[in-house]
Amino acid sequence: MNVSSKKEFTEIEIDRIIEMAWEDRTPFDAIKFQFGLREADVKALIKKELKFSSYKLWRKRVENCNTKHLAKRVEGIDRFKCKLQRAITNNKISKR
């Protein structure tokens, strides 16, 4: 699924995807689970939505962050949502 042929997201959903992408403890798998976007799709969406300088900062941060990829995570971290996530509206994960 590439960004040009993806489902049209609302402005609120795009903001949430970008917010989740910036969070250190939210892996790309959580974004894929909730919004159906692979890591490459998230990168393309962020590149499209943010200024180029902001995108470069984000990419640098993600490359050095082991918690963004479940395979690289430390064993003790086995969740991808925080205790406060239930308070976030339109969140499918918290409604399990």
List keywords for this structure.
mainly alpha; 4 helices; 96 residues
Characterize the structure shown.
It contains 4 helices and no strands. It has 96 residues and is an all-alpha fold. The chain has one domain. The mean pLDDT is 76.
Oligomeric state of shown chains: single chain
User: How much of the polypeptide forms β-strand, as a percent range?
Assistant: under 5%
How many strand units? 0
The rough form would be described as globular
Ranges where pLDDT stays below 50 over 5 or more residues in a row are none
- Range of helix content: 40-55%
- Cα distance spanning the termini: 26 Å
Question: What's the total helix number?
Answer: 4
What topology does this entry show?
Blueprint: H1 11-22, H2 28-35, H3 39-49, H4 52-63
Concise structural overview:
This protein has 96 residues and is an all-alpha fold. Helices cover 45% and strands 0% of the residues. The chain contains 4 helices and no strands.
